[in-house]
Predict the structure.
Amino acid sequence: MSHSGDIDRIYAREREKIERFSFDEQVARVFPDMIRRSVPGYSTIVEMTGVLAARYARPGSCLYDLGCSLGASTLAMARLVPHRDCRIVALDNSPAMIERARELLGEGEPPEIPVELLCGDVREHPLERASVVVLNFTLQFLPPADRDRLIARIGEALEPGGILVLSEKIRFADPEEDRLQQALHHAFKRNNGYSEMEISQKRTALEKVLVPETLAAHEARLREAGFSGVHPWFSCFNFMSLVAIR
């Protein structure tokens, strides 16, 4: 599954009106380039999602990739999880992303673990007998009022000893630190070839669509949902990944 695609030039021309960001066909075409140039450490997070899944997946259980986009984390799990009787359910609410994920999945050798690609709402899809659930940069796009319930549902579906991998863009309670981390993130994007106009226009498009929370807020929610251990394992600027153990 080669995640090739077009170069991201979506915000390269000045727009009179900037629409709210959505995962449409235009984004699906450039997504691998967009996320590589926008999210520091993304490839590491994806690869280590597979490593974590290999450690915690139980035979005969379900592994969920919720908000799977083009299926990078799904493939990382399918490649590394040793139990062939597991099942991976990859879910995204964007028809364009699921369609492109299906094309990419069909390009290489079929995974040895069955993968089900579904278009649907992560807030509503039933979860059952899970040993691994992945939310890589998904929770941040849900309305804040819906986040507690989803994490609680995941907690209920996970078997004891199962894990949730939660990766998010975060904000910092200290305004000075928050400004610094945002500035560093923008420097990362500039270093990857984005212009000031592209950075600014995308930031406007994402406003009120991507609503980040503090690490403390995520940890409190996970504890409330019954996770016994919450361990940050990756951090770069204002991006972080946690592994939460049920």
Observations:
- The longest strand covers residues 158-169.
- The first helix runs from residue 25 to 38.
- Strands lie at 62-66, 87-92, 115-119, 130-136, 158-169, 229-236, 239-245.
